[in-house]
Amino acid sequence: MRRSLIDILDLSTAELDEMIRVAEDIIAAPQRYSRVCEGKKLATLFFEPSTRTRLSFEAAMYELGGHVLSVAGANASSAAKGESVADTAKIVSCYADIIAMRHPLEGAALVAAQNADVPVINAGDGGHCHPTQTLADLLTIHREKGRFDRLVIGICGDLKYGRTVHSLIAAMLRYEGVRFVLISPEALRVPAYVTDALQEKGIEYRETVSLEEAVPELDVLYMTRIQRERFDAAALYERLKDSYILTPDKLRSAKSDMIILHPLPRVHEISVAVDADPRAAYFRQALNGKYMRMALILKLLGDRSEPEPLRALRTPQEIAARGLACRNPKCIGKVEQELAPAFVLAGGRYRCLYCESDAQDALSGGDAPKRKEQA
Ligand code: NCD
Q1: Taking Cα atoms as reference points, which of 248, 2, 257 lies closest to residue 117?
Q2: pLDDT in tens, 245-282
Q3: pLDDT for the residue numbered 312
Q4: Helix 131-145 crosses helix 282-302 at what angle (to 10 degrees)?
Q5: Nearest Cα residue to 9 out of 128, 140, 174
Q6: Residues 232, 236, 242, 244: what is their CA dihedral angle, to the nearest 10 degrees?
Q7: pLDDT tens readout for residues 305-341
Q8: How far is residue 13's CA from residue 63's CA, in Å, rounded to a whole number?
Q9: Is the C-beta atom of 130 inside 6 A of ligand 1?
Q10: pLDDT given for residue 374 in this prediction
Q11: What spatial distance separates the first Cα and last Cα of the chain, rounded to whole Å?
Q12: pLDDT-derived band of residue 97, with 50, 70 and 90 as boundaries?
């Protein structure tokens, strides 16, 4: 197993700083990097739709002088014949030096990394996380605001299924004096493991349904799309899809140096009239993604260190004795039956290793405890 990027917390803050420095250097002198990956191959395995993530990975590898092998779409690969993620990862390791993978199942990239002989980059695993979007977000915040500390960050939209949201919060809670305003409909609040992490770190945050009420205090406004493909009930999506629409009018009360981010694609949540506002940074953010992916490919190809061992897993005996089970139907551990169930104990509860959702825990009464609300 090689060092991979599955979760944004796989990178230390010092490593993130170094990658930002490399990305800035690439922006300043791209010709210096145009042959550094000569003879190396990146495989892009995208089992879910993508425009910017896949193309920016491919552009990144080409601009480093490397080559790209690509499978786009679940139907174009042996996954359609029923091949497991583990087997696919072993096979692709034979042909490529590094893999970028997007998959609809939560935890799929972790399973790929455990089975590949080359570094694996999580380019999105279901509604779970999306660390390379966070790299784009961080470079943008760094370039636009000049700091990560003491920022009030509003995150608006689908905070439940928006994987970019989960990774961004995880990254930002390591900085001093950061405060979050989490703006979503009641049905789309952030998952419990995210609010637990905020509470464990003592980070100030509040949850609200009103974008208008939140805007005046924000330094960063991160808009997101309602993730239609992750809803079980189409009617609920129809009811929530236009919950938030950012217009020039709603920006009147915003700070003059607030920045507006969006991982894109947008559907209706930012009106095109906002694009002309100098605070709209989302197209610059998409470009920044390419530079950070270049820095990431360089880092992982050059990193021969042993990956950190996985956090303490429960043994099969403990799992059986406690009656632990993952209840998330979108978790790879549930769908790929031959994978051994694995759990970690975090903040007093058992979580699935693959998708981080609260496990069913028969010994503590069947269900996981209700999430703690912040006063
Ligand atoms: C995001 C994703 O795929 O999660 N897109 C991206 O990678 N830039 C956001 C989204 O699809 O809404």
Answers
A1: 2
A2: 999 999 999 999 999 999 999 999 999 999 999 999 99
A3: 64
A4: 120
A5: 174
A6: -90
A7: 888 777 667 788 888 888 999 999 999 999 998 999 9
A8: 26
A9: yes
A10: 45
A11: 43
A12: very high
* Closest of 64, 92, 60, 63 to residue 78, by C-alpha: 92
**DSSP 3-state of 124:** strand
Distance (Å) of CA 202 to CA 42, 175, 177, 220 = 40, 12, 10, 20
Q: Phi, psi at residue 278, to the nearest 5°?
A: -60, -20
- What is the DSSP track for 338-364? TSPP-EEEETTEEEETTT-PBPEEGGG
Angle in degrees, 0-180, between the axes of helices 85-95 and 108-115, rounded to the nearest 10: 50
Mean pLDDT of the chain: 93
- Paired with 43 in beta bridges are 69, 99
Q: What is the pLDDT of residue 73?
A: 66
Residue 227 CA, closest ligand 1 atom number: 12
Return d(Cα 280, Cα 131) in angstroms, integer. 22
C-beta of residue 64 within 8 angstroms of C-beta of residue 37: yes
How many whole angstroms separate alpha carbon 277 and alpha carbon 282? 11
Among 130, 167, 266, name the best residue to mutate to test ligand 1's pocket (greatest count of ligand atoms within 8 A of Cβ).
130
Q: Do residues 168 and 190 touch, judged by C-beta distance below 8 A? A: no
Residues assigned a catalytic role = 52-53, 81, 102, 130
pTM score, two decimals?
Answer: 0.95
- In the reported structure, the alpha carbon of residue 159 is separated from the centroid of ligand 1 by a whole-number distance in angstroms of 13
